[in-house]
Specification:
By secondary structure, this protein is an alpha+beta fold. The protein folds into three domains: 2-93, Elongation Factor Tu (Ef-tu), domain 3; 98-251, Threonyl-trna Synthetase, Chain A, domain 2 (Threonyl-tRNA Synthetase, Chain A, domain 2, 2-Layer Sandwich); 286-409, Diaminopimelate Epimerase, Chain A, domain 1 (Roll). The chain has nine helices and 21 strands. β14 (213-221) and β15 (224-231) form a beta hairpin. The longest helix is centred in the C-terminal third of the chain and has 37 residues, at 260-296. It is elongated and about 105 Å long. The chain binds zinc ion.
Length: 410
């Protein structure tokens, strides 16, 4: 039986003859005259394939048992009468799956060759994933080194280098990695002078067939670096998707590719300014305003200050921080309103020590009790109640009622 998948690497269907049939529990194993179904190896997944006999019924090939001497057995879920020795059968493989796996696998050889040639680094691991593949390389890398690798790998594609795959009986052949110890001939993969290695996977005929290699991510892994990469359609799809996102960003900022970086840096500076402003407000203004309000507040009982204040600020967070600061640093109850264009925000907050001492002074409860008087929405807990008021003139009524309740409930 010839392993045609090594000689005719792009053959996705084949008419051949059943040479032998082996029956197993509920399955039959078919040995064929010629074989295009790659059983997996060298880190590359097995083919997804089907077989159809005289009845034209299509059977999925469920597994392949490798047999170097007699030829591989292809197991299908069929009765022993479905196939006979000598039958002509047609075998089909899922080409998209095979091509994608060949691309990721051959792309790995190109990348490994580039890492070795540019930086003398060896490959220590490979995982060909369903969406992205991982390649482990000795040592650490930086962005500049990775950009060089990616550029070089894509130059190799442009150079259209033949990818040779043959069995060598030459024991003295010099390969990138140590050869396995075997008496059989060794299957060699050779990409010009970039890579020569022992490998039983299936590769493309020429590096140009890979179209594009993209490194999408890299990070430190144990003592080396793990690279996530895409090849062929996966790489092209990734780049097109990125491109369409980039176009949207350009439109959003009304920029072109020459001006977008500056625009984003300016955006960053503005954000930094806002952070500085927030820090200034928190560190300088909070204590000052807090002291002023405590000074002008009403001492209602046992050194408890009641503050009633209406603000008009676009910084809701500052009002909230202020109420928190006052109640944490004083024995105080604050009734604060912040007038906005449509609704006015209301905040009632009291120091925990007051609420612990006088359980009847409960912000959520006070809100509830006064809310029937005016149009307010909201509520809260023992120490903090928040909400909105539709009519600004209602606020003073609301606050006055809460104020008299506090005095009574004490
Ligand atoms: Zn290979």
């Amino acid at each position: 039986m010839e392993k045609l998948y090594y000689r005719k690497r792009y053959l996705d269907s084949l008419e051949t003859t059943v040479k032998e049939i082996v029956t197993s529990i509920g399955q039959v194993g078919l040995r064929l005259e010629e074989d295009i179904v790659f059983p997996g190896g060298g880190g590359q997944a097995a083919d997804i394939a089907s077989i159809a006999g005289n009845s034209n019924k299509i059977f999925d090939i469920l597994s392949v048992r490798e047999d170097e001497i007699n030829g591989n057995l292809h197991y299908v879920d069929a009765s022993s009468s479905a196939f006979n020795v000598g039958d002509r059968v047609s075998v089909n493989i899922d080409w998209k799956h095979r091509e994608d796996n060949m691309h990721q696998h051959s792309g790995q050889h190109v990348l490994s060759g580039c890492f070795y040639k540019l930086f003398g680094r060896n490959t220590t691991g490979l995982h060909i994933g369903k969406t992205v593949s991982q390649l482990d390389i000795e040592g650490l890398f930086d962005d500049e080194m990775v950009a060089k690798i990616e550029l070089y790998a894509n130059e190799i594609i442009q150079q259209s280098i033949e990818v040779e795959n043959y069995v060598s009986e030459d024991d003295n052949i010099v390969t990138r990695r140590k050869l396995p110890d075997t008496d059989n001939g060794i299957r060699i993969l050779k990409i010009g002078d970039l890579d020569i290695n022992a490998c039983c996977g299936i590769h493309v005929y020429n590096t140009r067939d890979l179209r594009l290699i993209k490194i999408v991510r890299y990070y430190k892994n144990k003592n080396g670096t793990r690279f996530e990469y895409l090849v062929g359609k996966r790489a092209v799809d990734f780049v097109l998707k990125r491109e369409s996102i980039f176009e949207k960003i350009l439109k959003l900022y009304s920029c072109n590719e020459d001006t977008i970086i500056n625009a984003l840096m300016n955006e960053g500076l503005k954000k930094d300014e806002l952070v500085l402003e927030k820090k200034y407000l928190e560190n300088k203004l909070l204590p000052t305003i807090s002291n002023e309000l405590i000074g002008s507040g009403e001492n209602i009982f046992d050194e408890v200050t009641l503050i009633t204040k209406v603000f008009s600020s676009d910084k809701k967070w500052f009002i909230e921080d202020l109420a928190k600061y006052i109640t944490e640093n004083n024995r105080a109850i604050v009734l604060i309103a912040n007038e906005k264009e449509n609704n006015t925000e209301i905040l009632l907050q009291c120091s925990k020590s007051i609420s612990d001492e006088y359980p009847m002074i409960n912000m959520g409860q006070l809100w509830k009790e006064s809310s029937h008087l005016v149009r307010v929405k909201g509520g809260g807990s023992k120490f903090l109640a928040q909400g909105i008021c539709e009519k600004t003139e209602d606020i003073l009524v609301f606050f006055a009622n809460i104020k008299s309740s506090i005095k009574n409930e004490k």
